[in-house]
Structures are given as structure tokens and as C-alpha cells.
Design brief:
The chain is of the alpha/beta class. It folds into two domains: about 170 residues, Carbamate kinase; about 150 residues, VC0802-like (2-Layer Sandwich). Helix content is about 35%, strand content about 25%. The strands form four sheets. Strands 3-6-2-1-9-11-12-10 form an eight-stranded mixed β-sheet, sandwiched between helices. Strand 17 and strand 18 form a beta hairpin. Helix 8 runs antiparallel to helix 9. It is globular. The structure holds aspartic acid (ASP) and magnesium ion. The site of magnesium ion has 4 residues, from loops.
């Protein structure tokens, strides 16, 4: 008998008809002789609605109450699914994070799971009960409700799979797998049948929205095989797994883009120790995530520093950098919000030369200017003007022949 964890996202449970559809899938897995644990998100849009309610009262709601509020969407879906399954003749029980108990640290809005007590779940499974667990939430050691960050029910599902030693963790969503790029902007995008954890992690961080990056990190750490599939069809699916020798090491597996980028340049700063620290420490203190950073070679003791942040942080980041810029004698601060990051990802890149050159030549051929570059073992990212996003994705998809392989 296998133990299967199935996670359904918000678009798979946002009305009763869809919850019934989920119930049928759960029953199918159960009838096939499996023990089934289901993890659910809130109905699509519900978490946003709750956040918006809190923000109608104040810009900075108390964090404890904020998490207590935004975790409620999942309570609705898990209980509805249990009621649905019971009506269809299948014993099922819902559990909230604290009932399981999914113990987290006390970092509201982005808590980390510390421990999962599997006893209650195992007892139910032993009795043939389908267990349905609210994703996205946990409880800290003082019994406060916590949440795991937006998209956190993916992480709940992976953590539960690891704790229960599940045979597989199926992530059901509204697309039938992971694609070489976004099919909405490139009609030649092709579904990947397999992808490594590392590639998936890069793609998730670079803007592919199928999985919360933390869930991929955790899946890799505990070697949980993930299957991304659609709750609306039986076709397709992408297996996220460790690299095996049989797996061809693709030089490039995917092209991603991220329009949530803004570029800030601090112009003409004296090139001496402590300058970067003076600029970036205030950003860190304000929890602003800085993505790429470039410092130009200095000319006559002066240099330019350019970096990118998420567009939501642009106002605050500019203010902080202007302040620091004055202190260190920078000439001015320039902001460009019309940029996007285009990346190529592939585990085979490490062992192939010329991949970066090929990417740059492809962009150059289209007259696309590269504003910033950053690389790692398995990805190369270029910041370009936002208006070139679609074009850049399409030509790179062609250059690396991503439509061709199976
Ligand atoms: N409902 C939560 C959110 O919208 C968690 C999730 O969907 O994974 O972020
Ligand atoms: Mg999600």
C-alpha cells in the first residue's frame, strides 16, 4: 500500500463543482489501494481578499492577528472537501495546522516548519480515513497561528510528504506541468516530462510560478519526488526529481522571465572601502531583497553601482539609497522601472562552454541591449528593457531549440 500526498491549489478548489472534482480524484487514489493525505490551498483569490480587508483597517496590521486572519481561507476548503467526501461515502477528516500539529518558528508571515507530529495523521490513515490538511499554516511553540509565506501550501505538502515518508507528492494545479517557457508568450513552449530539483528551484525563483521555491528546496533536501499535474486532465505531468545518470543533462531546459524588476544606479561614487556596505546595509535592514549587483571598474577613483530590486520596493529603496548617496558623495541616483530579467536555466551548462556567448549573440542579433548580467552554475540572467521581454524569450527558446526535444 502506497502513501500518496496530493496538494490542490486555489484554482482547483474555488467552487463546489471543483471541490467535487477534487473529491473524485482523491477517491480514485484511495480506490487504487493507497493511503491518501490531501493538502489544500484556500479558494483562488481568498487570501488576497483577506489581506485586503486587513489593509483597509491599517497599513501595518498586528502580525499575529494578520496570520490568524489570512490562514482562514484554508479552513473553509478542507472542511468542505471532508463534507463532500463523507457525502460520497468516504470517511474523511480535516485538520488545521495546530490540530496536526505542524510546529513552526514564530516568524509570522514567513514561518519555517520545525517539526510535524505525524501521529494523528497515521492513526486516521490506519483506519482507512482520508486525511485533509490545511496548507499554508502552522502553530508556534506559544500556540500562535503562523503562515508559511505566499504560496506556502506547496511547502506544507512537501513537508508532510517528507515527515510521512510518502511515496509521491502530487501537486495539482491549473497547468499540466512545467514548460520550457511560459506558453502564454511563446506558442512553441513544450512541457518537460522531467526536471531536476536544481533546475526547478532556479525556474521557481526566476519567475515560473508553479511552485513556491521553498517547497522545491525542501523536496530536494528530503528527496521527495514531486509530480506537477493538472487537476482538470489526466494527461501530462512533470516529475521533479534528482538528477539520475539516465537523464540527459540538458544544456538549457528552460527560459524564464521576471518583469518584477527595477534597476537603480548610484552614479559617480568614490571607490573606497565601505561604500557598498553603506549603500546596502540600510536596504537589508528594511528587508529589501537586492537581486543583481554590478559595480563598474573605477575610473580616476570613481565608480557606478547598479542593482535591481522588486518593483514594490522601488520607492523605499530609492529613498534609502539617495540618503546613503548623499553621505558618500554620489553624484546622483537613477531609477529605471522598465526593465525585465530574462534567464536561461539548465544543469548541463556547467560542463558546456559557449552557452553565455550564444545567449548574448542571440539578443544582440535582435538589437536587444543587455543592461546587466549575472550567472551561476546552472543559469544565466540578463536584464534588458522590459519591452523586449517577449521577443527575448522567443528568440532564446528558438536558439536553444527547446521545442525540439522530447
Ligand atoms: N492561500 C495561500 C496563498 O494564497 C497559500 C497557497 O495558496 O499556497 O498564498
Ligand atoms: Mg500556489
Amino acid at each position: 500500500m502506497a502513501l500518496v500526498v496530493q496538494k490542490y491549489g486555489g484554482t482547483s478548489v474555488d467552487n463546489l463543482a471543483k471541490i467535487e472534482n477534487v473529491a473524485m480524484r482523491v477517491i480514485k487514489a484511495k480506490e487504487a489501494g493507497n493511503q491518501v493525505v490531501v493538502v489544500l490551498s484556500a479558494m483562488a483569490g481568498e487570501t488576497d481578499r483577506l489581506i485586503n480587508l486587513a489593509h483597509q483597517i491599517t497599513d501595518s496590521p498586528d502580525e499575529r492577528e494578520y496570520d490568524a486572519l489570512i490562514s482562514t481561507g484554508e479552513q473553509v476548503t478542507v472542511s468542505l472537501l471532508a463534507i463532500m467526501l463523507n457525502k460520497m461515502g468516504y470517511p474523511a477528516r480535516s485538520f488545521l495546522g495546530f490540530q496536526v500539529k505542524i510546529l513552526t518558528d514564530g516568524a509570522y508571515k514567513q514561518a519555517r516548519i520545525v517539526n510535524i507530529d505525524t501521529m494523528a495523521i497515521k492513526n486516521e490513515l490506519k483506519n482507512g480515513v482520508i486525511v485533509i490538511i490545511a496548507g499554508f499554516q502552522g502553530v508556534d511553540s506559544d500556540n500562535n497561528i503562523t503562515t508559511l509565506g505566499r504560496g506556502g501550501s506547496d511547502t506544507s505538502a512537501v513537508a508532510l510528504s517528507a515527515a510521512l515518508h510518502a511515496d509521491v507528492c502530487d501537486i495539482y494545479t491549473d497547468v499540466d506541468g512545467v514548460y520550457t517557457t511560459d506558453p502564454n508568450i511563446c506558442s512553441k513552449a513544450r512541457r518537460l516530462s522531467k526536471i531536476t530539483y536544481d533546475e526547478m528551484l532556479e525556474m521557481a525563483m526566476l519567475g515560473a510560478k508553479v511552485l513556491q521555491p521553498r517547497s522545491v528546496e525542501m523536496a530536494k533536501k528530503y528527496q521527495v519526488p514531486l509530480y506537477i499535474r493538472s487537476s482538470f486532465t489526466d494527461e501530462g505531468g512533470t516529475l521533479v526529481t534528482k538528477e539520475d545518470s539516465a537523464m540527459e543533462r540538458e544544456v538549457v531546459s528552460g527560459v524564464t522571465y521576471d518583469r518584477d524588476q527595477a534597476k537603480i544606479t548610484v552614479v559617480h561614487v568614490p571607490d573606497r572601502p565601505g561604500i557598498a556596505a553603506r549603500l546596502f546595509t540600510p536596504l537589508a535592514e528594511h528587508h529589501i531583497v537586492v537581486d543583481m549587483i554590478i559595480q563598474n571598474a573605477s575610473v580616476e577613483g570613481f565608480t557606478d553601482l547598479t542593482f535591481t530590486v522588486s518593483r514594490k520596493d522601488i520607492k523605499e529603496a530609492t529613498r534609502l539609497v539617495e540618503e546613503a548617496g548623499k553621505d558618500i558623495g554620489a553624484a546622483k541616483v537613477e531609477v529605471d522601472e522598465n526593465v525585465a530579467k530574462i534567464s536561461i536555466v539548465g544543469v548541463g551548462m556547467v560542463s558546456h562552454s559557449g552557452v553565455a556567448a550564444k545567449m548574448f549573440a542571440t539578443l544582440a542579433h535582435e538589437g536587444i541591449n543587455i543592461l546587466m548580467i549575472s550567472t551561476s552554475d546552472i543559469k544565466i540572467s540578463c536584464v534588458v528593457q522590459a519591452k523586449y521581454t517577449e521577443l527575448a524569450v522567443m528568440v532564446l527558446h528558438d536558439t536553444f531549440e527547446l521545442d525540439k526535444r522530447s
